[in-house]
Design goal:
Strand order of the largest sheet: 6-7-8-9-10-11-12-15
CATH class of the largest domain: Mainly Beta
Helix content: 10-25%
Number of domains: 2
Number of strands: 15
Radius of gyration: 44 Å
Largest sheet: 8 strands, antiparallel, barrel
CATH topology of the largest domain: Porin
Number of helices: 4
Shape: rod-shaped
Strand content: over 45%
């Protein structure tokens, strides 16, 4: 099993009778760059890029490199490494600037596959002939794998030991290539609107002649944090006394739109709301000698705060408070000159109700 995220390989070899010993005083992976090789191998175990084992060769009889053959042959598509680059990387890993391929011959062939790149690596030295088949998504991974494999072959030939398996973490492609290779994340799906309806008991402190209470019905349509509502309110008549058994009764019937924005959700959901009301303000005399009924237009704006608590199954309780600014201010009186009631310039309302979502 090859861990996901690296370049995997498998080797097979036949030891030869004679093994080349390392030069005196030299240890495998010696030099200042040796920790980088170990770091690369340790990082490879944690890498996360697709790679798979393709083939492992059967053991071959030990055979010395052919006289006069090139020590390193690199065959690959344009832009996918070179013999000089691989040799320079091996020299860097071994910390040997004047590296000589004495007794070691390497043949590497890189080809493009449907899933990425494939590398066939053949190594001949005093220990025998080994073949490796590697696959990875990026060519740069195979170039690094080849350099490390050749480095390990040098160390194995010098020490007479086994060549460890090679696993190399994939290099990150340039930002432009990543953008081309990785499809853009789909945009988040638009939130579906939610509809709700409910009823409230509305208490108006001073829009009319006295404190008034009446029903209010509403429907709303919400998108994420926003909701748009339509409401209708009825405030029955309140009396302003003008004499014994005489009064002016004032009532209000209105409807309007409101827009709310949710500030936060939790134990209590909080939202700020603003709206516009239009309707009819009615005043009628009671007990007066010449009683009549007057209908005047009503227009106001309001803004306030709403708190709500979800109960489950789409049911919720809500409470709100708002300030009302009448835009039309009528005055009502008796005997032509005596003023009895005038619409206030600022009023306050409170409401408590329930709603259900569907």
């Amino acid at each position: 099993m090859v861990p996901e995220g690296g370049v995997a390989e498998h080797t097979a070899r036949v030891p030869s009778a004679g093994r080349r010993q390392p030069p005196a005083g030299q240890r495998p992976f010696s030099g200042a760059h040796a920790p980088r090789v170990l770091d690369a191998l340790m990082l490879a175990a944690l890498a996360a890029a697709p790679a798979s084992l393709a083939r492992a060769s059967e053991p071959n009889a030990a055979a010395a490199p052919a006289p006069g053959a090139a020590p390193l042959t690199w065959s690959a598509p344009t832009g996918c490494g070179s013999a000089a680059a691989v040799q320079a990387r091996v020299s860097e890993l071994l910390d040997e600037p004047e590296l000589a391929f004495d007794g070691v011959q390497v043949e590497a062939r890189v080809s493009e596959t449907a899933g990425g790149w494939a590398l066939h690596l053949l190594t001949r030295d005093a220990l025998g002939t080994r073949e490796r088949e590697l696959q990875a998504a990026a060519c740069a991974d195979l170039v690094e794998a080849a350099a490390i494999a050749i480095t390990l072959a040098f160390e194995a030939a010098r020490s007479g030991g086994e060549t460890p398996p090679v696993e190399v973490a994939p290099t990150s492609p340039p930002a432009g290539e990543r953008a081309a290779a990785e499809p853009a994340a789909p945009p988040p799906a638009a939130a579906s609107p939610t509809a709700s309806a409910g009823a409230e008991l509305l208490i108006d402190l001073n829009s009319l002649a006295a404190v008034a209470a009446g029903p209010s019905l509403f429907v709303a349509l919400g998108w994420d944090a926003l909701s748009l509502g339509l409401h209708a309110t009825w405030l029955p008549g309140t009396n302003e006394t003008v004499g014994p058994a005489q009064a002016v009764e004032v009532s209000l019937l209105s409807a309007g739109l409101s827009l709310c924005y949710a500030l936060g959700r939790g134990l209590l959901d909080t939202a700020v709301c603003a709206g516009l009301d239009a309707g009819q303000l009615t005043a009628r005399g009671a007990g007066l000698r010449e009683s009549r009924v007057v209908h005047d237009p009503w227009l106001s704006t309001q803004a306030g705060l709403m708190l709500s608590r979800e109960l489950g199954a789409g049911l919720a309780l809500q409470a709100r408070g708002e300030l009302v600014v009448p835009l039309l201010r009528q005055t009502y009186g008796v005997n032509e000159t005596e003023a009895v009631y005038r619409v206030a310039s600022l009023a306050a309302r409170f409401a408590l109700g329930a709603r259900i979502a569907f």
